[in-house]
Specification:
It is a single chain. It is built from 7 helices and 7 strands, in the order αααβαβαββαβαββ. By secondary structure, the chain is α/β, with parallel strands linked by helices. A 7-stranded mixed sheet has the order 3-2-1-4-5-7-6, sandwiched between helices. Helix 3 packs parallel to helix 4.
């Protein structure tokens, strides 16, 4: 996400977003698909106000949310105060402030379409995932390009990109989410590229 786009997420706009999107169905779809549990270390890239991070922690995982917007991270921290296994950091998908091989599950929910350099973000997630770790990319399915989500052709391109980066077991699943359809691209990380 470009710096000017991040700056538009003022505290006021982030608060309004957080009220309207407290825990969208897309979070439940991706978290259920990932099935985090005890012993898992989850990273949510583009975590927004942190609802999916809290869901992962409630399932027994240690969960870290990363978002480029300081206002979003501040709201996520306030909403998660006192909850064990939850942390939030300001960061970008292409430069995650996390150690190598530190996560067993990584996901991005309704934020991948904002990434200015998708390849760099997927390489960075692969660095953070342990070998055998799972990546899930959840996006609304669009009929045509130019919105908040991915067209089926976009999703196919993501599959090709993941395979070219050495991810394995790459697939796409569709899930109904109220009035829209979620596409969840999943992949398994291999060792270092």
């Amino acid at each position: 996400m470009a710096d000017d786009e991040i700056e538009r997420w003022s505290r006021w706009r982030a608060t309004v977003y957080g009220l309207c999107s407290r825990d969208p169905r897309s979070n439940r779809v991706v978290v259920e698909a990932a099935a985090p549990g005890e012993g898992d270390a989850v990273v949510d890239v583009g975590c927004g106000v942190g609802a999916a991070v809290r869901r992962a922690a409630a399932a027994g995982a240690d969960a870290t949310g990363v978002d480029p917007s300081p206002a979003m991270v501040d709201i996520a921290r306030r909403r998660s105060r006192g909850r064990p296994g939850v942390s939030f950091v300001v960061g970008d998908a292409a430069d995650l402030p996390l150690p190598d091989d530190s996560a067993s599950i990584a996901w991005t929910i309704a934020s991948f379409h904002h990434w200015p350099d998708r390849r760099a973000g997927l390489v960075e997630i692969r660095r953070v995932l342990r070998p055998g770790g799972c990546l899930l990319i959840g996006e609304r399915r669009l009929r045509r390009a130019g919105g908040h989500g991915l067209t089926p052709a976009d999703a196919d391109s993501v599959v090709d990109l993941l395979r070219s980066l050495g991810y394995e077991d790459v697939s796409i699943a569709s899930h109904r989410a109220l009035l829209s359809t979620m596409q969840v691209v999943s992949a398994t990380a291999t060792g270092a590229a």
